Amino acid sequence: MIRKILLLPLLAWSTAFAEMPDWFDPNESTRQNAEGAKSDGANPTEATVGLIGAGEDPAHSVQAVIQAYDTCDAVYESVKAAAGSDPTRAADLVQAASASNSCPCVGENIWAAARLEDRVRLEHRRVPVEIFSLCGCSGAAAQAAATAVPDQADRILSAALNANRRPGGVVDSLGQIGGALGPVGAEGGVLSRKPESQCDQDVDPSDTFDATAVWQPGSVDPSSIPTTLTHQCDEDEDDEDNDSDKTGEVQIEQYVSDGYDRALVIHNGTRSTVDLADENYQVELYFPGEKETGRRISLSGEVPPDGVYVVAGEQSGSAWKQRANLVVPSVLMQPAEAVVLRRGLNDSGCDCARVTVAGTLNGLGTDAEEWREEKEGEQRGEVKLKNADSIGQVRPDEVAQSSWVPPLGAVPQTLARIDSACVNDVNERDEFMNAASYWTAGDARGGNFNPDCAAMSNDVLIAEYAAQTVEDSDNAWRMVELYNNTGAPVDLGEQGYVLEVYAEGERDPKSATVLKGKVDNGGRYLVTTDRAPSTLKDQARLVADELAVPKVDAVVLRRLAVRTSNQCEVEVASALRTLPNVPIPLRPISTRPLSGNPDPEDLPIDPNRGGEIASPN
After folding, report:
1. Whole-number pLDDT of residue 379
2. Is 191 helix (H, G, I), strand (E, B) or coil?
């Protein structure tokens, strides 16, 4: 039987007293009722509205409908319907839809709203934003929520990015994933760790949960929670110096789900100060009977050794909010079947940033450009990029665009850095150093640059650039090879490296490609387009069609001057800067080989007819 939770009074539900749909059974779970709606012929919108009207949690309803219908359209329709019913929950709904590890928006299956955008009249220069596995749900959910609640765009984008930030291993847990009854039962209450279990973490949240083994019920006065708490863990009683051997872990100390009070008390039992954001500590909460994450809370702040950290819902009593180190929306702290504390990072989720930004912009429609301008203004204040190296030249102000000749526009063309040229060219607007002292003709295979310099370079270098024609085709493929001559390993992702391409005399970049991966000292990093020869693509660390820009003026390697704590700031900044005006084409990545015509890599437009829709024949 489903456990009815106390719905927090965020708004007066217009559907609270609506007539129950025929398919709804109060004795079944949310997921089972979603399956019943599907069997009864209800569409995802009707199923979502029916579940919410029957009193089910909106975020849980969205997840249940997505799992029951298992289509990308269901993601879009369910989030849009739920956000329309409760605008204050838009960000929570996006996170619930985006957090799934089994997103149905993969391969050729994307939501209808995106497919329709692909068929409108587009400029042929627009390159579709490709949707990678799991990212489709972020794009669909962001577009749906932004369409329903445009004034929540900032929170929607942040929620989607956070949902895709996949945390690492389990540190501690409370309750059981997939269970039908939460750790404090239907009535709610407080659980505190028993003194004799102060060092017993549960790192398997899917095993059978026995509350009496580690926990004891009771009450807690938030004002009495200390700032530090000492546990004696893993000490050898025969060792007189055992204080220096004290070890422990970050763990859940108390769980509160009592009336409107929602709180989680966490203890740092280690010997070191823990930076929760840097080490990516996250709390996951699971809905009844579900094995997919329902909500995810990212923790931030430093916790000293033996320190106590409190997370509280914003509708908790004032005493809890005064004691809290972090106050979050109460909807994120609704009663859950399992509470899981994780640490580390399996996936930053930043690969989904471009699709998520595109979906948000598409959802905003006519308001998109105003929002983009505001976000770019914020990004300029927060994201500071500096040049690492460049090849070519951006058109100077004094040269008219109509008379400008792109320095790297010739095809075929290959330029390789000569071995003695180890100084970075950080000014992409000065005269292109194309002399024999800097660049020489290469053979477009990479590996030509072998530095012979007295000193290391200040930053990663562009070692080679090539633009070559495809055999029996008018198309060209391109490659850029980087070389690490800094004397130390470089993590391109952590240090926020971006490869920008300027073309056709324009002063802003045509494309920006975010780089990922580590490059050892003396190591190479090859980026190619998809049409490059297979022998070269096999060596590539990244295949990016953002390089496939004609009439190239310059290629600029940039990186963050200072890394901030904002989510995916480089990826969001580059997306805002380079995505076209709405509607933004969205294209799934095919998961199966196709044959015949049309070419699946082609846009559904005819570039030879000024961007008109191509004939389906």
Report:
1. 66
2. strand
Strand ranges in 121-258 using DSSP code E only, listed in sequence order:
129-131, 166-175, 189-193, 215-218, 250-258
β-strands 511-514, 274-275: how paired? unpaired
> Terminus-to-terminus CA distance in the chain, angstroms?
54
The residues facing 511 across adjacent strands are 501
The token pair at 157 is 């984008």
Closest CA to 266 of 234, 274, 185, 258: 274
DSSP characters for 257-300? EETTEEEEEEEE-SSS-EETTTTT-EEEEE-TT--SEEEEEE--
The kind and range of the H/E element at 60 are helix 58-69
Work out the number of other CB atoms within 10 angstroms of the CB of residue 26.
Answer: 11
DSSP strand pairing (524-528 vs 542-543)? parallel
Mean pLDDT of 157-171: 82
Residue 260 CB partners (closer than 8 Å, separation 6+) = 6, 8, 313, 315, 316, 317, 330
| Distance in angstroms (rounded) separating the CA atoms of residues 104 and 141 | 12
* DSSP string of 91-116, one letter each residue: HHHHHHHHS-SS-S--TT---HHHHH
Instruction: List beta partners, residue 518.
Output: 491
Q: Give the span between the Cα atoms of 428 and 553, in whole angstroms.
A: 10
pLDDT at 434 over 60: no
173: Cα within 13 Å, side-chain hemisphere:
23
> 485 Cβ partners below 8 Å, 6+ apart?
422, 451, 453, 456, 457, 460, 461, 521, 522
Task: Give yes or no for a contact between 445 and 536, defined as CB atoms under 8 angstroms apart.
Answer: yes
Return the residue matching tokens 């807690």. Answer: 220
DSSP letters spanning 367-416 = GHHHHHHHHHHHHHHH--EEEEEEEE-PPPTTS-GGG---TB--SSEEEE
Q: Is the pLDDT of residue 597 over 50?
A: no
**Core vs surface per residue 451-471: b (16+ CB within 10 A) or e:** beeeeebebbbbbbbbbbeee
Q: Tell me which residue of 183, 185, 176 sits closest to 204, measured CA to CA.
A: 176
Closest CA to 279 of 370, 343, 356, 211: 343
Which pLDDT score is estimated for 234?
Answer: 56
Q: Which of 398-412, 430-444, 602-616 has the highest mean pLDDT?
A: 398-412
The DSSP secondary structure of 311-352, one letter per residue, reads EEETTS-HHHHHH-SEEE-GGGGS--SEEEEEEEEEE--GGG
Nearest in space to 251 (alpha carbons), one of 343, 344, 345 = 343
**How many angstroms separate the Cα of 225 from the Cα of each of 183, 299, 323, 374, 397?**
21, 19, 8, 42, 63
Partnered with residue 476 across adjacent β-strands are 469
Mind listing the pLDDT tens digit for each residue in 96-149? 888 776 788 865 677 887 765 443 333 333 445 666 656 888 899 999 999 999
pTM comes to: 0.66
Q: Which two tokens stand for residue 368?
A: 């998109």
